[in-house]
Structure formats: C-alpha cells, structure tokens
Amino acid sequence: MTALARLRRAAALTAVAAATVVSLTACAFAPTGSDAGAAPATEGALQTVTAGKLTIATGEPAFSPWVENDDPASGEGFEAAVADAVATQLGFSKDDVVWVRSTFDSAIAPGAKDWDLNLQQFSITEERKQAVDFSSPYYTTTQAVVTTGTSPAASATTVAELKKLPVGVMSATTSYQVAADQLGTANLSVYNSNDDAVAALQSGQVDAIVVDLPTAFYLAGAVLDDGKVVGQLPDSSAGGDELAFVLPKGSPLTAPVTDAVDALRADGTLDELQQTWLGGTDAAPVLK
C-alpha cells in the first residue's frame, strides 16, 4: 500500500469513528418513553411535577379563614395567602401556580404525589415524617374558645367573662393546660375526647369549649349549628401544634420551600397574614 493510500485509509477510519461518536452521543441524550414530550430543563429551574408550574394542593372543601369561598387561587384566606407568598418567593408568577385538591389522609400517606406542595393545616409529627417531608412551620396554633350563637359565651370578649361560664375541654391536651391556667378549674368540665366536649356543648351542659384554633374553625364551620369562634386565648401558642407544608418524601423542593417560609417569617409577612386572616375581628380576636 502506497503512502498516499495509507493516508486515505487512515482519514476514512477517522471519519467513521467520529460519526460513531456523534451517533452514540445523540442516542445517549435522545428523549425516550414518557420523557419524549418533556420540556428541556432550564438551568437553575426548580424541579416540579409540571415543568415551569408549581402545583399546590389543599382540601375540598377548604374552609374559611384558611381559604375564603373555597377558592385557593384567589389568595384570600390565611393558607391561600401563605401559599401565594411562598410561590412568589420561589419565583413563580400567579399564572404559573396550579391548584388541585386532595384528601388529608392521602396527602400524608407514603408514595408518589401529583402535586408539589400541600397545605391543609398539617401539623408536624415524627410519625408523619416517616412518609412525607415538611417545610419549616408557617403557623403555631393557639388555643381558642368555640361556642354557638345562642350560648351566653357568644358575646364574651374577655377571659374574665368566660371564667364565670361552664367551659368544656379534652383531658391531657395543650388545650386543657391553657384552659386551666387562664380560666381556672372551678367551672371547667373535662372530657375524654373533643367529640364528647362538642356533645356537651350541643346539649347545653357547657356554654363553650376550648380547642386549638384550626379545630375551632372546623367545628364552627362544619359541625356546630350556628357555630362561632369566640376568640383566641392570649399567649397560648406555647406547646401548640406547628403547621407546615407537606411535600413528597425526598422532594427537591423541601429545602427551597423551607427557605421561602423562613424568609417570610423573618420579614414579618407571616405575622401580617396571621393578623389579617386569623387575628382580625371577623375571624378570631385575641381575648383580653
């Protein structure tokens, strides 16, 4: 083989090798299966269930004051407003936030989810941490007094007024500790469960009951006829449940969402939203 022929053959082999590398590289990065229609990732973008969108779940129905008029997309209501603020912190516009619904139990069960975040008054527990992730808390519950519109407690605005009335509470709870400390035990009736306390209120055995604030809103809105949250007992968050966003176990969003919640706490936004939706005169004023 002449020198020229050898050079031509070497050049041909080099071209074939280069073509093979290009082909293999293309195959390695070609979309396959369910990823075939996925949008290409943007550098620095958060990984969400739908590219470019933040999918947030809540319960159905969602009750006031957590969500007003069962419309979380409106941003009206404490949790709707918190979710809106967190989405903004994460860099999502309102148009890029998608709201869906889920049950409470399915949200904290193990397994894949079709949403990125979920909030419907989830308290952080060690047991739940085995199945899902939590952000840092956006609210620590206070203790509240709930009654009916026809009860003598309905018009109470001070702790002193409530001390004169029969009040029910569940034993061995933070609610009991706060009620005993602030209302005294003379007119306090203790029950084995909140259901028993509610039954006592409905039958007129007590004029009001003490529960945590989320439970108070639920009872007033969904259980009691003409239910009313009288107000929050002052300085009652010590030992209260911490409410947080639920995320799928191992979610890449857990740290960014926690950072967003922490930032909103640091700049006073969470306190402002709490006062607007949970501490106002139309929601649950703090009793004097």
* Element-level helix/strand string: HEHEHEHEEEHEHEHEHEEEHH
Rounded mean pLDDT is 86
Whole-angstrom Rg? 28 Å
Largest sheet: 5 strands, mixed
Order of strands in the sheet with most strands: 8-7-9-6-10
User: How much helix, percentage-wise, in residues?
Assistant: 25-40%
Terminal residue distance: 105 Å
Which percent range describes the beta-strand content? 15-25%
Tertiary shape: elongated
Total strand count, please?
12
Structural class: alpha/beta
Number of helices: 10
Q: Could you explain how this protein is built, in words?
A:
With about 290 residues, the protein is α/β, with parallel strands linked by helices. The chain has helices at about 5-30, 80-90, 105, 125-130, 160-165, 175-185, 195-200, 215-225, 255-265, 270-275; strands spanning about 55-60, 95-100, 115-120, 130-135, 140, 145-150, 165-170, 190, 210, 225-230, 240-245, 245-250. The chain has a five-stranded mixed sheet with strand order 8-7-9-6-10, with helices on both faces. Strands 2-1-3 form a three-stranded parallel sheet, with helices on one face. The model is unreliable at about 1-45 (pLDDT under 50). Keywords: Signal. InterPro entries: Iontro_rcpt_C, Solute-binding_3/MltF_N. This is ABC transporter substrate-binding protein. It comes from Microbacterium galbum.
